């Protein structure tokens, strides 16, 4: 069973950048589709980005496409989210998640890391 730990959150001014990282334990990391989600105060958790097992297929929520980049390193068991041109609306707790394959639910979640973007 993979376990996930996020890092890299913090406070940044609008227009700035942050890089989130998710470290996974376990030998089967490369078999999982990985995703990033976020939850703002008073709102439901929403999808941000995903990446296929090999890293060859990525997907983004419309509001972050062109500003955020998801990547993974299967040798290091990590998945990163590079966030550029940050906006106050990006403020949320960001979660790393894993699922066994497309069409299956994300069933492994990290504890989350706070990202706050000031105006």
Describe the structure.
By secondary structure, the protein is mostly beta strands. The strands form two sheets. Strands 2, 4, 5, 6, 9, 10 and 11 form a seven-stranded mixed sheet that branches. Strands 1-3-8-7 form a four-stranded antiparallel sheet, with no helix packed on it. The N and C termini lie far apart (40 Å). The model has no long low-confidence stretch (mean pLDDT 96).
The gyration radius over C-alpha positions equals: 13 Å
Number of distinct beta strands: 11
Strand content: over 45%
- Output mean pLDDT: 96
Number of H/I helices: 0
> Helices and strands: which structural class?
mainly beta
- Spans with pLDDT under 50 lasting ≥5 residues? none
Order of helices and strands: EEEEEEEEEEE
Q: Globular, elongated, flat, extended or rod-shaped: what is the shape?
A: globular
Spatial separation of the terminal alpha carbons = 40 Å
Q: Could you describe the largest sheet, including whether it forms a barrel?
A: 7 strands, mixed
Helix content: under 10%
Short key terms for the protein model shown above:
four-stranded antiparallel sheet, mainly beta, globular, 119 residues, seven-stranded mixed sheet
Describe the structure concisely for a colleague.
By secondary structure, this protein is mainly β.
């Amino acid at each position: 069973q993979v376990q996930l730990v996020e890092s890299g959150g913090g406070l940044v001014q609008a227009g700035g950048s942050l890089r989130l990282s998710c470290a996974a334990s376990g030998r089967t990391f490369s078999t999982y589709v990985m995703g990033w989600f976020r939850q703002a105060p008073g709102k439901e958790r929403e999808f941000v980005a995903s990446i296929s097992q090999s890293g060859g297929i990525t997907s983004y929520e419309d509001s972050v496409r062109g500003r955020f980049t998801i990547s993974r390193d299967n040798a290091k068991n990590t998945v990163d989210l590079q966030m550029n041109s940050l906006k106050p609306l990006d403020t949320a707790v960001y979660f790393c998640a894993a699922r066994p394959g497309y069409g299956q639910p994300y069933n492994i979640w990290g504890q989350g890391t706070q990202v706050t973007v000031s105006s």
